[in-house]
Amino acid sequence: MRINILAIESSCDETSAAVISDGKILNNIIATQSVHEKYGGVVPELASRAHQQHLIPVIHEAIQSSGIDKSQLSAIAFTKGPGLLGSLLVGVSFAKSFAYALGLPLIEVNHMQAHILAHFIDDPKPNFPFICLTVSGGHTQLVLVKDFLNMEIIGETTDDAVGEAFDKTAKLLGLPYPGGPLIDKYAKEGNPEAFRFPVSDMSGLNFSFSGIKTAVLYFLRDRIKENPSFIEDNLADICASIQFTLIKMLMQKLKKASKEYQIIEIAIAGGVSANSGLRNELANVAKKSGWNIYIPKFEYCTDNAAMIAMAAHYKFLKGEFSDLEVVPEARMKL
Ligand code: KG4
Ligand code: ZN
Questions:
Q1: How many angstroms is it from 12 CA to the middle of ligand 2?
Q2: Residue 254's pLDDT is what?
Q3: Which of 89, 168, 263, 326 is deepest in the core (most CB within 10 A)?
């Protein structure tokens, strides 16, 4: 008997479903919510509503295109948290009802653990123990990954996530949400040392990203006073300089963690790991320091159900199932 699992992801603003068979991802269907663009950030009420609209068509497509019939499924997996409560509830409620109707076991998945386990979808796969820098819109964590389901946070942000810093500074530049990919795009044409922003240095392996938002706010205010079209005239240089500063802060701590733990197996995960500047810098440092680096495919960096399915596969193998009373957890710990 094959282990076939349907996995559902609905923690933020992507509605996604994927089917995994014996550890091999068969598909990864994602419906993105464009409704948030004009608000400069995810509007929780609108996100839950959009999940309600997208979830059944997305699941239908995932099952149909997998070539696996509902009767051949072994379990239903879902994101339990962390995330927006209203968004999570849509996925959790569907998963419970579907599992109940089909008489299948349920598997709850931690979204942050799943981002890391996305590394096991394709080759090359990292060797344990490895250090993963998980960087998304909601989290910035340095994680010591000892085994598939055994992970320890060794450093994290004390305020904003780095994805938030990308998105909030992009908003100050008048860019739509999510601004991270746009900063990445414009930065390619700019000079990263055109403008200097402060690099915060927290103790140990922790991060702080709230300072850069304020620094960029005052910087723009002063420059616009002198030149009202300062942003338009310097967009590429501003983006390159912001990105340079954020990457510097991330890499500082990643290098420190590698040294402290004597680990050269280094991975990145989460939405911000799609950033080309971060990928390049990681490759540069890897060459100098002899690191073996692991970077997920673009489609597995931002939120997706394939990573939930991968995590669910390992939980299935360990017999870790949930009961029907399970509820979502907005602030679920790793
Ligand atoms: O992992 P993810 O899809 O959702 C969360 O769990 O938060 O991450 C979304 C974050 C957003 O802040 C978005 O701006 C950022 O990832 N992001 C990027 C890039 N692509 C996505 N940030 C910088 N450069 C990119 N290329
Ligand atoms: Zn995520």
A1: 8
A2: 98
A3: 168
